[in-house]
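Working notes for the structural subgroup meeting. M.R. asked for a predicted model of this chain before we commit to crystallization trials. I am recording the input and output together here so anyone reviewing the notebook later can reproduce the run.

Input as submitted:
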Amino acid sequence: MLDRLVDANVPQKVPDQGVAVALTCSFEPRHNSTTQAELDEMVRATGFNSLDALIDATVPQAIRRSDGMEMGRYTEGMTESGFLEFFK
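Returned structure, recorded in token form:
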């Protein structure tokens, strides 16, 4: 799993210093979900057989929602470009 995160061959400029440093995490794994194999590995590492079993053991039923949550103008998701435009 860690081999997806490390890409020492891709230099990155440090804005204030102008020095190239090794990138410790490439773009794709930071912005995309885990693979099914990675998810299975993480769940097994916690001692559960499935993500649902892990959630059942850790999230109390009383605080779970299945009806969504009204958050005003933030209720609907934003695209990255839409967020950047909003954030300006």
